[in-house]
Amino acid sequence: MRRRERLTGFLIIFILLTFSAYSNSMNVGGRMSQTNIQPKVINQNNTKNVNSNLTNNSNINRKNENEKNLDRSINLDNSRDKNNDQGKKKENLDRTFEKIQKKPLIERVKVHTVESGETLWDIAHKHNLNIDSLIGANNISNMNSIKPGQEFKVLPIKGILYRVSPGESLGSIASKFKLKKETIMKDNNLDNPSNLKIDQELILRGAKPEFSYRDRLDQKFMYPINTRITSYYGPRWGRIHEGIDFAAPMGSPIRAVSSGRVVYSGWANGYGYVVIVEHQKGLRTLYAHNSKLLVRVGESVGRGEVISRSGNTGNSTGPHLHFEVQVNGRPENPLDYIHR
Question: Pfam families given for it (predicted)?
Fold first, then answer.
C-alpha cells in the first residue's frame, strides 16, 4: 500500500516537472517568436521609409523636370522674343533703307570737307565716284589747288548736278545729255515734266560735264560792261547770289563776253528780260534785267557784240546788269572767267 502511494507521488511529481518544463519551453518559444517577429516590424518601417524616399525622390524628379520644362519654355520664349526683336530691327532698317531709296537723289547729296593732304582723286575714290562727278557737282576753278576745310558736294550716284536755265524743258535736257526723260523724272521725283522750274536743280544719272577742266584753263571772257561791280558772287540776303551785278544806267549797251550762239532770249521769272549765250557745250553766260533784247534764239554772236540794253525788269531794285557764268548747268563765280 505504501509502495503504491510512493509510486503515485513520484508519478505526480514527474507530471508536475514535465508540465513545468513544457511551460518554460513554451515561454522561451514565445519570446523567440516575438524576437523573430520584431525584425519583420522593423522591415515594414524600412519599407515605408524606402517607399517614402522613393515617393519624395519621384516628386523631386518631377519638380526638377517641371523646372527644366519651365526653363526650356522661358528660354524658348526669350529666343522667340530675341528673334522677334531682331526681326523688328531688320524690318525697321529695311523700311528706313526703303525710305532713303525713295527720296529724290537731290535730297541724298552729301557734303565732304577736305582734310589735310587730300586730293580730288582721293575724295572721288573714297565716295566711289569719278572726277567728272565731282566737277559736275562743284565749282572747282583749280583742281590741283584745294584747301583743308573746303567743302564739296558728293552725289549719291555717278552723274552731274544740273540747274535748269530759262527756256529749257525736261525734253531738251534729256536730249542734250542723251538721257531718258523717265530716268530723270524717277531720280528727281518729278510727277509732271511741265512743272519744271527755272533754277531747279536736277541730278542727271550717268551724264558727264560738257565743260572740262582743260576748257576752264583756256577760256577767258571780256567784261560785259565797263562799270563798277555793285554786288559779288556768294551769300547775300540769306541765299547765294549766283552772279555779279554791274552798275548800268537804263539803256546801257550790254555786250557778249565771247562768241557763241543765243539759246534763249525772252522773259524769265525773276530775271526779267534775259539773254543766254552758249559759247561751247557746258559753258554759257546769262545777262538779266534788260530793258530791250537785240538778239534772237539761234543767232550767232561775236565777242563784244551788243546783245541787249540794261534795264530794271524782273526782281530788281534798280537799273543794273545781273551777269552769270554757267558751267555744266550750274552758276560759278564769274570773276574766275572774266578779265578786262
Answer: LysM (PF01476), Peptidase_M23 (PF01551)
Q: 134 near 124, Cβ under 8 Å?
A: yes
**Which residue reads 569719278 in cell numbers?**
130
What whole-number distance in Å separates Cα of residue 137 and Cα of residue 131?
10
Beta carbons within 8 Å of 336's beta carbon, 6+ residues apart? 141, 216, 325
pLDDT tens string 156-179: 998 999 989 898 999 999 998 999
How far apart are the C-alpha atoms of 290 and 300, rounded to whole Å?
19
Q: Which residues pair with 221 in a beta bridge?
A: 338
Cross-strand pairs, 178: none
pTM: 0.55
C-alpha R_g of the chain: 53
CATH topology of domain 107-208: Membrane-bound Lytic Murein Transglycosylase D; Chain A (3.10.350)
Write down the pLDDT at residue 36: 46
- Distance, in Å, from the CA atom of 16 to the CA atom of 89, rounded to the nearest integer, reads 107
Pick the CATH number of 215-336 from 2.60.40.10, 3.90.1200.10, 3.30.420.40, 2.70.70.10: 2.70.70.10
Question: In the chain, what are the domain boundaries?
Answer: 107-208, 215-336
Instruction: Evaluate whether 222 touches 303 at the Cβ level (below 8 Å).
Output: yes
